[in-house]
Each structure stands twice: as structure tokens, then as C-alpha cells.
Amino acid sequence: MQTVLYTSILLAATLIWGFLFYKKDYHPQPLRIIVQVFVIGLFSMVPVFAYKFIYQHYLPLLSEYEIFRPLLTQPLLIGLGYFLFNLVLLTTLLFTLSSLMTLILTVFKHDTLINIKRALKEESLDFVATSMMIGGLIYVEVFLQSVFNIQIIHTVLGTILFLGIIEEYIKHLIVRLTDDKKLRDIDDAITLSVMVGLAFALIETIVYAISTGDFALIIYRSFLSLPIHLIASGIFGYYYGLAHFAKPIVKTEGGGDKIYHSGWLPKILKCRRSTLYADGKMTEGLFFASLFHAVTNVLFEINLTFLVVPIVVLGLVVLNHLYKMARTEWKAIRA
């Protein structure tokens, strides 16, 4: 009876959180789309479990810690090369797992295949770029360790940051591969991302409760873990929305979507302004979402849970502000 009560509270909390953010959307998508994305999001832990199974049995170099070990044990250039190789391999694995799962759950819809093709073309380096930024933090940690004899990122934050990046990337792919062509405004990207975040947190909470045998965990996770995941996903969703509508935004702000020649890399790649803008926003979104996720997880890890509450409140305020910014940006586009 107690288990049923706790589960009912979790489901009720999920519905309440989902309803609150559904109502925030200025022009919400049809309820059937919201439900479809949420249901597929319920399976978003499958790629995470598959990833863990693969590195535990076949590719240990891709575990959350081993993936950046070359940065700490090898000379700079060699370590960086191994790290980059591991990231490309991990990106390929996560994208493949997420694509297969989404394709199966959408019953091999043609739209899903188109979304996979577009995502493969447009987002292939976002995960790698964000992870390289985390690699920079690891080098900072190594320097601090040598000077002050402290360890932060190496022992705790490095692993948690990478796990956060992996989870946020997979949650984003669910939205991208399921509903990419149907986004009507930036608000849609935030709301759909929030729904996937809620679905992920719902299943994660149930899995933790079953694995630990402590169903009382459901109570505090309903008020902490659910909003943590929806906030992180919503943050990424906002930046994804900006990236999705990069062409009209760039035309509004920059006077056209012409080839961008500032800098040697854009000149070589012959990038358009909208392409650079979209790539930048996707990397920012994944980084900020993963950082928020990681900070809360670290506080849980070091038994400072009481600090998570104000951070969650702040995150909700920020997410509400992002909705307002999304509407302002959209009005500027439509003007």
C-alpha cells in the first residue's frame, strides 16, 4: 500500500509539473504531440543503460571516468588525441543508440528518418565541442592539484559532468529526432524538452527506488529530481529553439545569412552565419544544461542536499525567464 501511495505521488507530481510548463507555452503543440514525446521520453534511459552495458563489457575506455583519463596520464598532444578519439566514438555510440530507439518507438516513420539525417548533418560535433570544454576544466583541476594539493574535477566533478552531458544529450536527441520538423516557435522546443526531462526523471526515480528498495526516495525526488531534470532539459531546449530558428534570427539581427568570413576556420569551411550561430547555441545549451545538472548531483554526492533547494528555485526562475526571452525573440522574428 505504501509503495502504491509513493508511486501515486510521483505520477501526480509529474503531471502537475508537466501541466504547469505546458501552460507556459505561448502556442502549445497539440496534446497528442506532447504525449507522444513524453511517452518516447519514458524510454530515454534505455540508451543510458545500453551505454553502461557496452562500456562495462566491451569498451571500458568509454566509461564516465576512463574517457578523460588520457588527459591526465599521457603527454598533452597524445592525451588530447586519445580524448578526442574517445569523444567521437562515444558521440557515434550515443547517437546510434538514441536513433535506433526513437526509430523503433515511432514505428519507423519517414519523418523520424528525415530528422535523423538532419541531426547527423547539423549536430555531429556539438557533443564533442562541449566535452572538450569539460576537458579544459580537467586541465584546470590538474593545475590546482599541483599548486594547492586539491582534487575536485578529477575525483568527483569530472565523472558527474560527463554523465550529465551524456544524459542531457540523449534527452535532447529524443526531442530532435521525434519532433524536429514540427517546431512552430522557440517555446515549443523548451516545452517538449521539459516533457522529455520529466519522463526521464520519472523512470530514473522508479529505477532507483526499485534498485535500493527504498520507495521513500520517491517523495523527495518528486520535488527535487523531477525539477532538476526538467530545468536542465528546458535550458537546453531554449538554446535548441534558437539553433532551430537560426536563419530567421540571424537575418533579423545580422542583416542576412551570407557566408561568414571572419576567422580562419569559418573561411575554410565556408560557414554561413546561421550555421555558426546554431552550432554555438547548441554547444552553449548542452554546456549550461550539463553544468546545472552536475552541480546538483555534486551537492547530492557530498551530502549538501539542503543547498539543492535554492538552486532548484533559482533554476525555475531562470527557466521562466527563458520562456519570456523565447517569446521576445519570436516576436522580433515575426515582426
Please explain how this structure is put together.
By secondary structure, the chain is mostly helical. It has one domain. Helix content is 81%, strand content 0%. The protein is built from 15 helices and no strands. It has helices spanning 2-24, 31-41, 45-57, 69-73, 76-105, 110-122, 126-148, 153-179, 186-212, 217-223, 225-244, 246-254, 264-269, 273-301, 308-334. The radius of gyration is 20 Å and the shape is globular. It starts with a helix and ends with a helix. Mean pLDDT is 84; it is low at 264-269.
Brief rundown of the structure:
With 335 residues, the chain is mostly helical.
Radius of gyration: 20 Å
What oligomeric arrangement do these chains adopt?
Answer: single chain
Largest sheet: none
Q: What low-confidence regions span 5 or more consecutive residues with pLDDT below 50?
A: 264-269
- SSE arrangement, N to C: HHHHHHHHHHHHHHH
Shape: globular
Distance between the termini: 56 Å
Count the E strands. 0
Instruction: Figure out the total of helices.
Output: 15
Structural class: mainly alpha
User: Structurally, how many domains make up the residues?
Assistant: 1
What do the pLDDT scores average to? 84
As a percent range, the share of strand residues is: under 5%
Give the helix proportion (percent range): over 70%
Characteristics of this structure?
335 residues, mainly alpha, 0% strand, globular
Helices and strands, with pairings:
Layout: H1 2-24, H2 31-41, H3 45-57, H4 69-73, H5 76-105, H6 110-122, H7 126-148, H8 153-179, H9 186-212, H10 217-223, H11 225-244, H12 246-254, H13 264-269, H14 273-301, H15 308-334
Helix pairs in contact: 1-9, 1-10, 2-8, 2-9, 3-5, 5-6, 5-7, 5-8, 6-8, 7-8, 7-14, 8-9, 8-14, 9-10, 9-11, 11-14, 11-15, 12-14, 14-15
